[in-house]
Automatic annotation (TrEMBL):
InterPro entries: Bact_Polyamine_Transport, MetI-like, MetI-like_sf. It is found in: Cell membrane. The chain crosses the membrane at residues 12-39, 59-84, 96-122, 128-154, 175-207, 227-248. It comes from Paracoccus aestuariivivens. PANTHER family: PUTRESCINE TRANSPORT SYSTEM PERMEASE PROTEIN POTI. GO terms for biological process: transmembrane transport. It is a multi-pass membrane protein. The keyword Membrane applies. This is ABC transporter permease subunit. Belongs to the binding-protein-dependent transport system permease family. CysTW subfamily.
Length: 268
């Protein structure tokens, strides 16, 4: 009885979580403009309309630019933070790492408003660069967590052996450590890219006149005739997110297998 109740709870939870996502492709291929059952017929016109929309392509280009830059910056900073936290002891190490992780627990709207006030007080014009700054801030904790796991799984004797063979700290890091943590770096890049691509609140506050894909979708929800195209766009975004997270998980597990560390859980 207890096992049956737990099974029923798990099924209800999964239905509640994934049923709305399953409805996206169903209505994206529906020929009717009203999002309701019964369905009228099969069509791909909404996907064609989506790719022909110049405003959507501009928003997509902005989002891709922001996501690529944010993921690179967040991963680079995450490498430094993870390396420092796993290899060195320094004053106020705990509080410093806590500050790095703070965006994980702070409401995004608070972070967004704070960044907006600071940037406007400094006279900075809101554009794609300000969104990159905000997305780097919220992606860095995720990158640091992933990379800390990668650095913790390293065998320090390999680094010490490189020093014994005459390598400098930089060359040992570049030739020995970096290749071993590369799966973690790739995983961090993909995870940060996905988070940035889907993020709405910071982009809404800091983008200015430059639309991103989430803000463009939000602006189109007031037009009923645009809803089917938004459903098609949502289907594409969900598919992209699943693919990127699957690749990130693959490289995470590959890194664990490569270093022989214990798997403590992942994204999937």
């Amino acid at each position: 009885m207890k096992g049956g109740g737990l099974r029923a709870y798990a099924i209800c939870y999964l239905l509640f979580l994934y049923a709305p996502i399953v409805l996206l492709p169903i209505f994206a291929f529906n020929s009717g403009t009203i999002i309701a059952f019964p369905l009228k017929g099969f069509t791909t016109q909404w996907f064609l309309q989506m790719f022909e929309n110049a405003s959507m392509r501009r928003a997509l280009g902005n989002s891709l630019t922001i996501a690529v830059c944010s993921s690179i910056f967040a991963t680079c900073l995450g490498v430094f933070a993870a390396r420092a936290s796993t290899r060195f002891e320094f004053p106020a190490k705990g509080p410093i790492m806590g500050l790095i992780m703070l965006p994980l627990v702070l409401p995004e709207i608070i972070v967004s408003i704070s960044l907006l006030v600071v940037l406007l007080s400094l006279g900075v014009q809101l554009n794609i660069l300000t969104v990159i700054l905000g997305h780097t801030l919220i992606c860095m904790p995720y990158a640091t967590v992933i990379l800390t796991t990668a650095f913790n799984s390293l065998d320090r004797s390999l680094e010490e052996a490189a020093y014994d063979l005459g390598e400098t700290k930089w060359s040992a890091f570049r030739l020995v450590i970096l290749p071993l943590v590369m799966p973690g770096i790739i995983s961090s890049l993909l995870m940060s890219f996905t988070i940035s691509l889907d993020e709405f609140i910071i982009a809404f506050f800091l983008a200015g006149n430059e639309p991103t894909l989430p803000t463009y979708i939000y602006s189109q929800l007031r037009f009923p005739k645009q809803i089917p195209m938004i459903m098609a766009l949502g289907t594409v975004l969900v598919l992209m997110s699943i693919i990127l997270l699957t690749i990130a998980e693959y490289f995470r597990r590959r890194g664990i297998a490569k270093t022989g560390a214990k798997d403590t859980g992942g994204f999937l």
